[in-house]
């Protein structure tokens, strides 16, 4: 026989909410109905999601030394969250996009990579207040994967019917050395189990301060994403915003084999974009495409500036998944790099699909 008791209050009390810590006891008894004095005990936490609010937007962009603000001195020697570059550009722009899509958002910041101060994810009580959680990553800087406490928190949220959309590059990891290619996901990962993503293409940028736009003679660049074609009704085709490319990506370039190392197929190189050294932007760098199981639905195919010769051309760069319990979607390109009208159409179409009223 067993019994269930709330650690904070009895289930028979007036306050019988299902959220809280519970203890479950199971004990055996013999033929004489004598109860074993040492029952098995398990303590667990139960959450009754409120979902009384609409959309929570979590910025998980890696604002590190690789940010343009650090290179051009916009926010000091090392960009940190709260600098003019971020609060003055991204947050107001994101809020504007969601407002134009008909759904204002609440926003928080949670850096997933780098500092131990971000190891603790937002409280479950906060996450479960929302009908949809959106994570945006505008930098190329990568996130480690399923072992992150934040990703475990999102998995728990989806286990109880939560809805999650991830937009940005390298949300599920990155190749740190070796040639560009597909990163296989672990069958136990959030990407595999909650997004049906079994592999993610990584352009494999390798840090280098030795190669400039003047000295590089490489003939191929991974700045190739120029847009995406929709595979489903309700979502628009997407064009890259070259105006935003110049604003944000103007201090980066990425070439194959710049240092002569045959294993460093893709690198990024610091350069200026000035009237004296103009730079012809080709496309958005380091965009991902996915290998998805048959359960997920591909919604976008990437277009490369190199056509069929490009690494990402024809790759599925948008996937969504509906289990009947949770809904999820992932897009391998940064939202800021998309033309504003198209970005609004993407958000509006996906919010409709997530059925957020």
How would you describe this protein?
With 357 residues, the protein is α+β, with helices and mostly antiparallel strands. It has 2 domains: 2-46, no CATH class; 53-354, 3-Layer(aba) Sandwich (Rossmann fold). Helix content is 18%, strand content 27%. The chain has 7 helices and 18 strands. The protein has helices at residues 68-72, 84-100, 124-127, 149-159, 190-195, 242-248, 340-354, and strands at 2-6, 20-26, 40-46, 53-59, 105-109, 130-137, 163-168, 181-184, 197-202, 223-230, 238-239, 252-255, 267-270, 284-285, 290-292, 297-304, 316-322, 327-331. Strands 4, 5, 6, 7, 10, 11, 14, 16, 17 and 18 form a 10-stranded mixed β-sheet that branches. A 3-stranded antiparallel β-sheet has the order 1-2-3, with no helix packed on it. A hairpin with a 7-residue loop joins β10 (223-230) and β11. The longest helix is centred in the first third of the chain and has 17 residues, at 84-100. The chain is elongated and about 80 Å long. It starts with a strand and ends with a helix. The model is unreliable at 4-14, 64-87, 206-220 and 250-273 (pLDDT under 50).
Topology:
Elements: E1 2-6, E2 20-26, E3 40-46, E4 53-59, H1 68-72, H2 84-100, E5 105-109, H3 124-127, E6 130-137, H4 149-159, E7 163-168, E8 181-184, H5 190-195, E9 197-202, E10 223-230, E11 238-239, H6 242-248, E12 252-255, E13 267-270, E14 284-285, E15 290-292, E16 297-304, E17 316-322, E18 327-331, H7 340-354
Parallel strand pairs: 4-5, 4-6, 6-7, 7-18
Antiparallel strand pairs: 1-2, 2-3, 8-9, 9-15, 10-11, 10-14, 10-16, 12-13, 16-17, 17-18
């Amino acid at each position: 026989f067993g019994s269930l008791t709330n650690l904070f209050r009895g289930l028979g009390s007036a306050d019988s909410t299902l959220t809280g810590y519970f203890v479950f006891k199971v004990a055996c008894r013999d033929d004489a109905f004598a109860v074993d004095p040492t029952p098995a005990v398990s303590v667990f936490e139960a959450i009754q999601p409120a979902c009384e609010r609409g959309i929570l937007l979590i910025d998980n962009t890696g604002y590190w030394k690789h940010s343009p603000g650090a290179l051009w001195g916009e926010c000091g020697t090392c960009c940190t969250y709260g600098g003019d570059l971020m609060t003055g550009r991204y947050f107001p722009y994101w809020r504007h996009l969601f407002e134009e899509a008909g759904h204002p958002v609440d926003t928080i910041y949670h850096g997933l990579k780098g500092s131990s101060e971000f190891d603790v994810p937002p409280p479950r009580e906060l996450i479960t207040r929302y009908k949809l959680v959106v994570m945006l990553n505008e930098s190329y800087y990568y996130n480690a994967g399923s072992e992150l406490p934040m990703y475990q928190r999102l998995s728990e949220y989806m286990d109880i019917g939560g809805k999650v959309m991830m937009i940005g590059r390298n949300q599920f990891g990155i190749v740190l050395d070796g040639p560009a290619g597909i990163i296989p996901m672990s069958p136990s990962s959030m990407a595999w189990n909650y997004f049906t993503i079994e592999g993610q293409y990584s352009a494999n940028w390798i840090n280098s301060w030795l190669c400039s736009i003047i000295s590089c003679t490489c003939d191929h660049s991974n700045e190739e994403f120029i847009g995406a074609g929709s595979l489903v009704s309700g979502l628009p085709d997407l064009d890259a915003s070259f105006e935003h490319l110049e604003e944000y990506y103007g201090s980066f370039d990425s070439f194959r084999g710049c240092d002569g190392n045959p294993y460093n197929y893709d690198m990024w190189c610091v350069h200026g974009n000035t009237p004296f050294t103009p730079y012809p932007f080709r496309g958005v760098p380091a965009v991902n495409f996915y290998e998805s199981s048959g359960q997920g639905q591909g919604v976008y195919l990437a277009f490369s500036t190199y056509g069929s010769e490009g690494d990402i051309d024809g790759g599925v760069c948008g996937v969504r998944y509906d289990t009947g319990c949770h809904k999820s979607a992932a897009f391998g390109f940064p939202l800021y790099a998309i033309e504003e009208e198209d970005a609004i159409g993407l958000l509006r179409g996906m919010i409709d699909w997530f059925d957020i009223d």
